[in-house]
Amino acid sequence: MTPGNLPLGPLMLDIAGTELAADDRRRLAHPLTGGVILFARNYSSPEQLVRLTAEIHALRHPPLIIAVDQEGGRVQRFREGFTAIPPMRELGRAWDVGPQHGRQLASETGFVLASELQAHGVDLSLAPVLDIDHGASSIIGDRAFHSDPRAVAELARALVQGFKMAGMSSVGKHFPGHGYVRGDSHLEVPVDERAYEQIDTADLAPFRRLIDSGLGGVMPAHVIYPKVDDRPAGFSPVWLKQVLRGRLGFGGVIFSDDLSMEGASVAGGVVERAEAAFAAGCDMALVCNNPASVDELLGKLTFAAPAVSLARLARMHGRPRAGSMVKLREDARYSRALRTIAGIGQRDGELPLNS
């Protein structure tokens, strides 16, 4: 039975496998839950994904937001049955050949990516990556469009326009920029020693451009910028309230990065991490790959999402068209986009992207 009018909670959780187990259902029914993030372990086939997303959406009203990291390249959770999206660096290479050509490819890539997710009942891809490639970060690497802030901004804007054409919102990450530090925030607490002015000139430029174009969400980095604040950006009111909300005028959803990551450990245990994220200005906090921490958080956290957060979250629902891949394949707009992006990043001996 679907619970009636249970507002979305401020937590986005993961699930164990390719179908909902009893523990998954219990956690997703909790009032603190507002979304689900899916991983490769939750996917076995297009048909299975359609069943899973339909079951998740049927649990609550309004339905939980279903998200995935479907950036392309090495960060693409759903592969078999989906178009292989190139790493965003390939769009940067297209930009170097011709900016207008790069923008077109980015827009068509965004349309294909978003259309396929929504045809399987997924609301949102946590993309695009807006980090600048400073040549230092292995965790970012070819996930970044380019080393030039203008190229990143314009290509990401075009990708997001493709999302919008398909009816999907967008989440820019990792604010204010993860590309300068070598450390991987999954495994450690990276520190970026640059002054605010240096970060503002380069790394904030894509965020500023995308915010002006209607970016739906932002995800801050678990990186400390000590010349600005001694807390990681995701726990920093300076970065989230003063800079992101204040100076940049962002009015969308702020998603924390995964609170299970080592980069979040400076805030304490999982409850303290969530409290710190919300106090800093996050609307929704992600907790993944640690069921015990999720249960602790659901049992101990006392936090009610403010009305403004609920309004922001409501805008993140996509236009899921579960089970409509047959119709999508018959759509001339989608077919044209597939043909346009088919050769991106091909090298001698490689197969086409949609093979």
Q: Mean of the pLDDT scores?
A: 91
Low-pLDDT stretches are 347-355
Global structural class: alpha/beta
By CATH reckoning, the class would read Alpha Beta
CATH architecture: Alpha-Beta Barrel
Strand tally is 12
CATH superfamily heading: Glycoside hydrolase, family 3, N-terminal domain
- Sheet-strand content, in percent, reads 5-15%
H and E string: EHEHEEEHHEHEHHEEEHEHEHHHH
Overall 3D form: globular
* Strand arrangement across the biggest beta sheet: 6-3-2-1-12
Keywords, please?
13 helices, 355 residues, disordered C terminus, 5-stranded parallel β-sheet, alpha/beta, 12 strands, TIM Barrel, single chain, 3-stranded parallel β-sheet
Task: Present the secondary structure layout.
Blueprint: E1 11-13, H1 22-28, E2 33-38, H2 46-58, E3 65-68, E4 70-72, E5 75-76, H3 88-97, H4 99-119, E6 124-125, H5 149-166, E7 171-175, H6 196-201, H7 204-212, E8 217-220, E9 224-225, E10 229-232, H8 237-247, E11 253-254, H9 270-280, E12 285-287, H10 291-300, H11 307-314, H12 325-330, H13 332-341
Parallel strand pairs: 1-2, 1-12, 2-3, 3-6, 7-8, 8-11
Antiparallel strand pairs: 4-5, 9-10
Helix pairs in contact: 3-4, 4-5, 4-13, 5-7
Please provide a written account of the structure.
With 355 residues, the chain is of the alpha/beta class. The protein has one domain: Glycoside hydrolase, family 3, N-terminal domain (TIM Barrel, Alpha-Beta Barrel), CATH 3.20.20.300. It is 39% helix and 11% strand. The protein contains 13 helices and twelve strands. A five-stranded parallel sheet has the order 6-3-2-1-12, with helices on one face. A three-stranded parallel sheet has the order 7-8-11. It has a two-stranded antiparallel sheet with strand order 4-5. A hairpin with a 2-residue loop joins β4 (70-72) and β5 (75-76). The longest helix is centred in the N-terminal third of the chain and has 21 residues, at 99-119. It is globular.
